[in-house]
Amino acid sequence: MTTITENEFAKLSKYIKDNYGINLKEEKKMLVIGRLHNVLAELKFKSFSEYYDYIILDKSGKAVNTLINKITTNHTYFMREKNHFIYLKEKVLPYLMKSVKDRDLRIWSAGCSSGEEAYTLAMILDEFFKEEKLWWDKKILATDISEKVLSIARTGIYNKQQVSQLPETWKRDYLRNCNEEKYEFTDKIKNEIIYRKFNLMDSVFPFKKKFHVIFCRNVMIYFDNNTKNELVRKFYNSMEDGGYLFIGHSESLNGGTMGFNYVMPSVYRKG
């Protein structure tokens, strides 16, 4: 197996942090070697220095896409941190239904991984609005830096085990059988989500309108404090007054709430 020197690891980890915010500490060195060993072998590179130069010189984006797909962890599942979805349906959506006068509801699943969170949100919205849904624009923006997980999300296809935790009514109303082991979301749900590749480290978010709800859960655990603070600042500037930010249960906002008001563990509100 190819080894990585301290200098090689420092260069590669700095590139990843500077461009994607992911903070690879020294103890992650073996993880990096393990996940990238086969990539180097396929490219016939004998060192991580060769691989680093390849990433920097490749203008197609293919090399860095492979790098990000390999080093990011995409562990997620339907109804993860269920109390967030309960709070969204029971508290947040009733408030937004009354307060969003133009009926243009904007929700962002940031770091959406393979789509489980975004599809859960789409089903909650459909169930909540019922016959009122025809009068609302409520598409969900779902973004990630990994094209690999986005391609999975766009298919809307999951195996039997993955959807086993969904309520039976949801499985009946929103899923169709592909075969004995696979289920696919109906077009009614798939069409409510817009998937885009997006880097949360971009200095400026390009959105023309602000969001009412942002879910960014179990993403900031990979960032150092400065990176996390800067991201939260950008979320704040991209959110409507009274909007809600949901983060992971193991996460918190540093130095107070940085302009957000604390609502409950891992839920914050602007203004």
Automatic annotation (TrEMBL):
Domain named CheR-type methyltransferase: residues: 1-271
EC numbers: 2.1.1.80
GO MF annotation terms: protein-glutamate O-methyltransferase activity
PROSITE patterns: CHER
Reactions accelerated catalytically: L-glutamyl-[protein] + S-adenosyl-L-methionine = [protein]-L-glutamate 5-O-methyl ester + S-adenosyl-L-homocysteine
InterPro entries noted in UniProt: Bact_Chemotaxis_MeTrfase, Chemotaxis_MeTrfase_CheR, CheR_C, CheR_MeTrfase, CheR_N, CheR_N_sf, SAM-dependent_MTases_sf
One annotated GO biological process: methylation
Gene3D superfamilies associated with the record: Chemotaxis receptor methyltransferase CheR, N-terminal domain, Vaccinia Virus protein VP39
Highest taxon, organism lineage: Bacteria
Keywords associated with the record: Methyltransferase, S-adenosyl-L-methionine, Transferase
Enzyme class name: transferase
Protein name: protein-glutamate O-methyltransferase
Organism encoding this protein: Clostridium chromiireducens
Organism phylogeny: Bacteria, Bacillati, Bacillota, Clostridia, Eubacteriales
